[in-house]
Structures are given as C-alpha cells and as structure tokens.
Amino acid sequence: MEQRIGSSSQPLEGAGFDPAFIPGLTPPVSGRTEDGEPEKEPEAGEDDETAPEPAETAEASPSEPAEDAEADGPVFEASDRRARMVADHRGVRLSLDDQECEFRWDEIGAVETETARFGKRYTVTVHTPDRRWYPIEIEAPARSHFKEWDEQLDAVLDAYFEEDAD
User: Fold this and answer.
1) In 3D, which of 88, 89, 62 has the Cα closest to residue 77?
2) Above 50 in pLDDT, residue 53?
C-alpha cells in the first residue's frame, strides 16, 4: 500500500483568505513591480530621461478644493461608531473600522437598502455586475432617520446612477 506524505488539498482562494482578492478593498502596493519585486531606483549615473518630472508627480493638496463640475450635486452620508457610507458624484465609499472600499458609478450594478424590523440597523448593499455584493450595517440614532436616509440616498442615485436600458 502506497501513502503520500503531505497534504493532498489545494490551497484555498478567495476573500476569506486573501483580502486583495476583492478589487478596491486594499490599496495597491507601491514600489513593487508586477512580479512582486521591489522597483529599482535609478542611480546617479543613469539616464534621467525616464524619470518623471516633479510637476507630474505632484498631487493636489488636500486643502485645495478639487475642480469638479458635479461636486455641487446631492451627497448621502451616514455613519455610526464603526461604519460609514458616503455616496456622491465620485461613487460609493464604504468603511468599517479600518477597512475601506470604493466603487465608481460604472462599477455598480445596483444599490439596495434594508431596515431591520426591530432595532435601528440600516443596511446598504452595493451589488457589482460580476455578482458580488458588499453590505454595510449602520446603526441609526433613531428609527426616524430611516426615511430621511432613504430619501437622501434616492436623490444621489437618481442624480448619478444610470441603469442600462437593455
């Protein structure tokens, strides 16, 4: 009788084992190539023509307002001690504790809201076209906020979210 030494099971893949499995959940690793090796910085004697100009690498200061024509539109924001959701002209941003994810409007297939029958939990679920969904529960200060939040979120969805008319 022959026996194999070691595990015969394959390593598991998915969001439960690798947070980078879900796009947008973790920020990209900077300073690394696609192979996972650190990028090599040019030395003093190397050709500097490939180096980016300082004006190209400068980012806008957070204190300077962004020049967005749509920035004056409706905004929905709800948060509690752990969770936060913001929907505006850029898309939908969800955060829970120290985890964040951001969806542009073209990445969203549907947005669903649900209120708890008892209690003060307001659940917003973002569905993507590739059949994934991302729920977040926000505890409202009072159940009376549910109607107000629904109206604000509907205004944002009406302004920015376009469904495909197939």
Assistant:
1) 88
2) no
- For 86-93, the CB contacts below 8 A with 24+ separation are 87/111, 87/153, 87/156, 87/157, 87/160, 88/156, 88/160, 89/159, 89/160, 91/160, 92/126
13 three-class SS: coil
How far apart are alpha carbons 123 and 135 in whole angstroms? 7
3 state SS of 125: strand
Is the pLDDT assigned to residue 24 strictly greater than 80?
Answer: no
* Coil vs helix vs strand at 70: coil
Closest CA to 108 of 122, 126, 124: 126
The verdict on pTM exceeding 0.85 is: no
Which residue's structure tokens are 């194999």?
A: 4
Written as six digits, the tokens of 136 are 């977040």
